[in-house]
Amino acid sequence: MKKNINDALNKQVSLEAESSHIYLSMASWAERNGFQGVADFLYQHSDEERIHMLKLIKFINEREGNAIIPAIQQPKANYKNLVEIFQSILNHEIYVTSEINKLVEITLKEKDFTTHHFLQWYVSEQLEEEALARQINDKLKLIGSDKMGLYMFDRDLARLRTADTDTKNSE
Ligand code: FEO
Predict the structure, then answer these.
(1) Domains in the chain, number
(2) Contact 55, 100 (CB under 8 A)
(3) Fewer CB within 10 Å: N-end or C-end of the chain?
């Protein structure tokens, strides 16, 4: 594997690890603030980001590259409300998509078609992650500050992630 591809993939390893950490911190905030459904959703999201990281690590090493395990910064611990959390998630996922696109561009420039093929999974995954984050933000906008709406939102959210995972597993 070429060094610039290896370095770019390691940068993505770091970003997936950071994503997992951020969502873990958000899950902890939700759990501390009585939103158990949101917490379950975010714990699961954090686990999925760790799997994204692992997939990259294994791919790099299989191709005789060097997967480096990164240091991770402490994420923000406190949030104003659920709107802040889910807007941050959407913004973060849009950023991750742009980084994946840069990676894809490098593989095309270097004619590394194996890595290009491998990255297609991440391209589709980002499409789903962004769509899900947008869907949740739209729901929160509708609910506003309605307490009963927030209660139902919390109750329904854990199911939303499970349904999403079930769909993926049956693909
Ligand atoms: Fe692995 Fe949410 O990007």
Answers:
(1) 1
(2) no
(3) C
The answer as to whether 129 is a domain residue is: yes
Q: Which domain holds residue 41?
A: 3-163
In angstroms, the CA 171 to CA 169 distance is: 6
Q: Which atom of ligand 1 is nearest to the CA of 122?
A: 1
Q: Separation of 44 CA from ligand 1 center, angstroms?
A: 12
Answer whether residue 168 is part of any domain.
no
User: What is the atom index within ligand 1 of the atom nearest the CA of 92?
Assistant: 2
- 99 C-alpha vs ligand 1 centroid, how far in Å? 11
pLDDT tens track for 50-64: 999 999 999 999 999
Question: Which amino acid belongs to residue 3?
Answer: K
Distances (CA, A) of 147 to 39, 78, 143: 18, 21, 8
Rounded to two decimals, what is the model's pTM? 0.92
Q: Give the pLDDT of residue 169.
A: 53
* CB of residue 49 inside a 6 A radius of ligand 1: yes
Are residues 158 and 41 in contact, defined by beta-carbon separation less than 8 angstroms? yes
Residue 53: name the closest of 75, 22, 20 by CA. Answer: 20
